[in-house]
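Hi V.,

Quick status before I head out on leave. The structure for the redesign project is tokenized and pasted below; the design run finished overnight.
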């Protein structure tokens, strides 16, 4: 908030405060959604982004620009666009993740292949529409399809914080049920938990969390996998009372620290989301190769 600050504090503090708030919202949303998704799938490799969520976001964005035009999309009220994006992403992600979860729960490779196929389909449809639109309209899509933390709408940030607060409260209240769900379908049933009900509730929370983060700043593909993998190493506990705060804190340190380094040391020469995606991609390959060897 104060590092290298010069000039009018009345401008500096609100400007940096909005960026800091957006970074924290994204960090907590993505880390919590990843922990929940890995719990109900019982696998530490899968995340909502890897299963095609980011490609789905770009597809919805391209469809909106394709139907309304670049100028029409830009002139829409930001709050209305944000709420529509959140609602559309929640509905689409429930359909996508619900189908993958309940049809292929015990087959990891089938889930990964299905996610890859869905992601390829979304990207193909996106590419088809992008080739049919004006280059100026394509620029609107290109700007909105990358995670951005420099221009944050205060009204959108307030709505995102309210939605995040409600989702986090619900996650914290079901933290002990998540411990039971992580034991597997049969063990959860024997302990008196309804696995399908718990998975559906967790899936709704995952959809809300990831949708809020993506609609606010754009997709950050491998952030969740990276920070949750680090959280398992630093706090190797099976209990969500420990894992949820740990992953959120590590995610916040990663985003805030990374953005500070990018701005102060590297002069914004590389977007933070690109660096995170590269590191997260390496972590994903390492975890996948370890799983194959086992």
């Amino acid at each position: 908030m104060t590092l290298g600050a010069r000039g009018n504090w009345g401008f500096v503090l609100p400007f940096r405060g909005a960026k800091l708030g957006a970074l924290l919202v994204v960090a907590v949303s993505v880390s919590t959604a990843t922990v929940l998704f890995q719990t109900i799938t019982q696998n530490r490799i899968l995340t909502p982004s890897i299963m095609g969520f980011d490609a789905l976001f770009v597809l919805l964005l391209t469809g909106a620009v394709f139907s309304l035009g670049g100028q029409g999309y830009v002139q829409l009220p930001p709050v209305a666009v944000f709420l529509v994006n959140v609602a559309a992403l929640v509905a689409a992600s429930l359909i996508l993740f619900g189908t993958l979860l309940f049809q292929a729960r015990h087959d990891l490779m089938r889930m990964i292949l299905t996610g890859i196929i869905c992601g390829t389909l979304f990207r193909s449809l996106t590419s088809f529409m992008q080739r049919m639109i004006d280059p100026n309209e394509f620029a609107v899509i290109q700007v909105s399809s990358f995670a951005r933390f420099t221009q944050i709408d205060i009204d959108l940030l307030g709505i995102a914080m309210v939605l995040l607060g409600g989702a986090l409260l619900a996650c914290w209240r079901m933290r002990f049920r998540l411990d039971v769900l992580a034991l597997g379908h049969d063990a959860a049933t024997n302990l008196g938990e309804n696995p399908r009900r718990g998975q559906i509730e967790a899936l709704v929370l995952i959809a809300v969390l990831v949708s809020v983060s993506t609609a606010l700043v754009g997709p950050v593909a491998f952030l969740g996998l990276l920070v949750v993998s680090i959280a398992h190493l630093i706090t190797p506990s099976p209990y969500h009372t420990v894992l949820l705060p740990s992953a959120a804190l590590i995610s916040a340190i990663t985003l805030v620290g990374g953005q500070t380094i990018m701005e102060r040391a590297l002069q914004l020469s590389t977007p933070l989301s690109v660096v995170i995606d590269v590191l997260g991609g390496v972590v994903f390959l390492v975890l996948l190769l370890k799983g194959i060897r086992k």
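Above is the designed sequence. The first helix runs from residue 9 to 41.

G. will cover questions while I'm gone.

Best,
W.
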